TrEMBL record:
Stored InterPro entries: ABATE, ABATE_dom_sf, Znf_CGNR
UniProt-recorded name of the protein: CGNR zinc finger domain-containing protein
TM segment ranges: none
Signal peptide limits: none
Pfam families linked: ABATE, zf-CGNR
Organismal lineage: Bacteria, Bacillati, Actinomycetota, Actinomycetes, Propionibacteriales
Origin: domain of life: Bacteria
Length: 176
């Protein structure tokens, strides 16, 4: 997988996971996130971007929770129809040659929506959308992309959620 695709997948996961502790409350949060995500060739972030991305985040969560591909396809097609997608080649910030899916000087929200929508479409087309998962831990709402060979990963973080559940199961077995 190209580095830029892996980077967009990470942005996708992080965007959805901003909901759990509400890390996208306002302009300061969005500015911090866009710097970490290396959002380039976009207009400065605005409050309108925050509102638009919070709505988009909820739609993305439904993709991770979808039981089958047809449910994902409907949502992705709807997002693609609404997105301003204008592919062009770009090379910057040490990321190598890659495709920008958004027009020059697009809003931050339009930039991220176009990138995420196209990455999701490519994942579906490649049969990789079953890697979009929600954490199996009962008190965790995080999503993740399962990169295991057999697509069997259950937890967003095996060190945190996985170990906590395994330890609880062990204690329950020992108590009987």
């Amino acid at each position: 997988m190209r580095t830029d695709r892996a980077r967009v997948q990470q942005v996708l996961v992080e965007l959805v996971n901003t909901a759990e502790a509400d890390q996208l409350r306002g302009l300061d949060d969005l500015t911090r996130l866009t710097q970490r995500w290396i959002v380039t060739e976009a207009a400065p972030p605005t409050e309108a971007d925050v509102v638009q991305l919070r709505r988009f985040r909820a739609r993305l969560r439904s993709l991770f929770a979808a039981e089958d591909q047809s449910g994902r396809i409907d949502v992705i097609n709807d997002v693609l129809a609404r997105a301003d997608i204008r592919p062009r080649l770009a090379e910057h910030d040490g990321l190598g040659l890659h495709i920008h899916w958004f027009p020059r000087h697009a809003s931050v929200a339009d930039h991220l929506i176009a990138d995420c929508a196209m990455e999701l479409a490519l994942m579906v087309q490649e049969g990789e959308d079953d890697r979009l998962k929600t954490c199996a831990a009962p008190n965790c709402m995080s999503v993740f992309i399962d990169r295991s060979k057999n697509r069997s990963r259950l937890y967003c973080d095996s060190q945190a959620c996985g170990n906590r559940l395994h330890a609880a199961a062990y204690r329950a077995r020992q108590a009987t």
